[in-house]
Amino acid sequence: MAKYLGIDLGTANVLIDVKGEGIVLNEPSIVAINSRTNDVVAVGKDAYEMVGRTPANITAIRPLKDGVIADFNITEKMLQYFIDKLNVKSFFSKPVTMICAPTNVTPVEQKSIIEAAEQAGGGKVYLQLEPKVAAVGAGLDIFKPQGNMVIDIGGGTSDIAVLSMGDVVTSRSMRFAGDKMTLAIQAHVKQSHSLIIGERTAEEIKKQIGSAMCGNESNTFSASGIDIISGLPKEITLNEKEVEEALSDGVTQIVESAKTVLEETPPELSADIIDRGIMLTGGGALLKNLDKLLSKELEVPVLMTDRPLDSVALGTGILLENIEKHKKY
């Protein structure tokens, strides 16, 4: 009997849900390649440990950018590694797979995502829009004739959508999300402190003292890097308020996109959203006080799902269990 795999092919992480087992894999979307031989050295967690620490002949590659495939061959190798690791293929059956894409994905990008999954798993592949799947994973019943709004902030994209009767009514997808937050912190530290810090350090700053509003100056983080002027190692101290300012332009983009989606929503569905609130999912949803800022600016209750990092993977699992019932959607 064929296995059912739900894959959240994220820019930052790949999560795989196996029907009946739940989420069985959660690893970084990174592949380490030997540039001399073109061989894969490491994938996932092992490759992430190499970021910023490799010799010249080893390159740690993120094959996905802004929610879509930037390097098809490396993405295929990465998926192949993860699926093989789960041991879900057999000679007689190949897994049925559901994989996700941002709402603004082009037909060419859709085709490349499906092909990568087919080459890696070999079975039937379904493609679904990320905010739709995230909403299902967050516990929303999107198949009723009522308005549900979700803001899914992943690694590569922030997808904002209003859903009703199993489909997207109106949406926006923007390429400011977790990765761009990390880059914004790196840029701020370089400009304000003349210090170059690595991606992993910036990521840790975001997790520890990142904030969308009401940043507390007493919450600090010691960051080490290379001084631009002297070229020597140097350590500085950042505070929460400073990081909030570094992220403010990008966070404002998310707020404005959410306002646009609400403005384009039919009145009856808008009334439902006011009553039910907006569901916030994805790793970027963990940014401190982001839910409060969105609620304040949109004048609508904003709720955080219990498992924001897992919503898309959980949603693929739920939809696959009901694939026959909902296939028309």
Automatic annotation (TrEMBL):
Zinc keyword on record: no
This protein's UniProt keywords: ATP-binding, Cell shape, Cytoplasm, Nucleotide-binding
UniProt: ATP binding residues: 11-13, 155-157, 203-206, 283-286
Protein localization: Cytoplasm
Keyword Cytoplasm among record annotations: yes
Recorded GO CC terms: cytoplasm
Main location group: cytoplasm
InterPro entries per the UniProt record, alphabetical: ATPase_NBD, MreB, MreB_MamK-like
Record GO biological process: cell morphogenesis; regulation of cell shape
Short name of one Pfam family: MreB_Mbl
Gene3D superfamilies per record: 3.30.420.40
GO molecular function: ATP binding
NCBIfam families assigned: mreB, PRK13927.1
Recorded family membership: Belongs to the FtsA/MreB family.
HAMAP family given in the database record: MreB (MF_02207)
Subunit relationships: Forms polymers.
Function: Forms membrane-associated dynamic filaments that are essential for cell shape determination. Acts by regulating cell wall synthesis and cell elongation, and thus cell shape. A feedback loop between cell geometry and MreB localization may maintain elongated cell shape by targeting cell wall growth to regions of negative cell wall curvature.
Protein name: Cell shape-determining protein MreB
Source organism of this protein record: Companilactobacillus versmoldensis DSM 14857 = KCTC 3814
Gene from which this protein is expressed: mreB
